[in-house]
Prior knowledge:
Number of domains: 1
Distance between the termini: 36 Å
Radius of gyration: 18 Å
Oligomer: single chain
Largest sheet: 4 strands, antiparallel
CATH architecture: 6 Propeller
Amino acid sequence: MxxxxxxxxxxxxxxxxxxxxxxxxxxxxxxxxxADWRGGVTRLDPDGRRxxxxxxxxxxxxxxxxxxxxxxxxxxxxxxxxxxGLYRLRRTGALETVLTAVxxxxxxxxxxxLIDANDRIWLTVSTRRTPRALGYRPDVSDGFIVLQDRxxxxxxxxxxxxxxxxxxxxxxxxxxxNETFGRRLSRFRISADGxxxxxxxxxxxxxxxxxxxxxxxxxGGIWITSIVSNRVIRISPDGxxxxxxxxxxxxxxxxxxxxxxxGTMDRRHLDNIKSRRLRNxxxxxFGGSDLKTVYLGCLLGDSLATFRSPIAGRPPAHxxxxx
Length: 323
């Protein structure tokens, strides 16, 4: 098969009026869930109707970044608000605390949460720096990964370069993680007790690529989204990288790259991107009945960009959790 290439003309948009839909999830019933910056999750039905599940009893700064769908239909929210931590949101609007401290210290703002096939919870924290933009540095490696299972919660990997999305491969033996400002995709072997082995580099990325979203396809390929440059990259099983889609302004990417290398990158480089159609894409998920429709979460838009892929996605652990 020749390298996959998607034109901006092939992009459609689904949903409207969304509020910072950074993370997107799809299920077998055709529902699409995305993070809602107002304090919860929005569900988009196949016919375009939507329903918001927002926390009603919160006294905290709840800003969902990563979200996960649980077996009982509730959601886990990785809170990027100043209060940090991990929370469970019921569809009634009830918000429950899951984890606010680990190993004796309070959790900073959290980036992403994953529930795996064994119902273990993996939570990423990008940086310990305040404000978080101080972590947008090539020489800062203070991100970490928390595992919560029947044994409790503990840090299982530390010293990462802005920890972002994590996924587990089809074998169940490897945890993959994007290090956004370390500009690499890493992986760790998972032991039977959940402990992680040493970090292994899977891929390193060049100028303008800051890996954020992460998922697998049915052929063992790894799909990456890059903030700033609006790139979707596929890493084939043999390790080759190919840009599937890009919508970036060379001048802005060069400015951001210069700031990154100088250690001065901040929010303005993420919030003021120049592009034609994409609005700083941050995540991706395969959906549709054949798992060949790709949905792109984003930081700046109010809808989800979408396109058809000739390669199907691998069903995620939550694929059938809608009952």
